[in-house]
Amino acid sequence: IFEYDLKKIIALSTLSQLGMMMFSISLGLYELAFFHLLTHALFKALLFLCAGVLIHGAGNTQDIRSFGGLSLNFPLVTVCMNLANLSLCGVPFLAGFYSKDLIVELACQYSWGIFILLMMFICLSLTVLYSVRLTYLSFVGPYGGGTSISVCESDYSLVGPVVILSFTSLVSGPILSWLNFPAPVLIFLPAFLKWGALFF
Question: Where is the NADH dehydrogenase subunit 5 C-terminal domain (predicted)?
């Protein structure tokens, strides 16, 4: 949450998602942990590629305090990186939602205790917090004074893989869900727990 290095933020968010996978394994949900690993690999690769384009275009600096307002110079990378960030947060119908929401709902259904559920929801809210912070400081916030080269988006060797991974991170959630779980998973939860993941 207090890190300013772009690559470190993305790498530390990988540790957060590995914690989610270990949490799933500790509940005995091995298939869900593997499913989350696959979907997470796709949108995390997209995050790292977008970060590489931003670092290259911002004069080889990784400090997000010197970015600010990059959405004007990098509109395509902004859309793709925000797509990956929203998928990381588990926004409905993106790749991360299909795996993360299933882990959260099954953890709530098994009712492992209020402390474990509370810690899980706090971790979910922290994921959203550092993702929104990264988006704000990089794309929306005030200009930090760094150099910016907007011609990076005209280089198809940089932007081509970003667009391809954006498409796969959109469609990989439902496709992998259908491949891994041919039968639908029935989850019975009270309304406040069903909406808990989206609320946090």
Answer: 130-199
Classify residue 1: in a domain, yes or no.
no
Domain coverage including residue 18: 6-199
pTM of the model: 0.86
- Supply the pLDDT for residue 83: 92
β-partners of residue 5 are 63
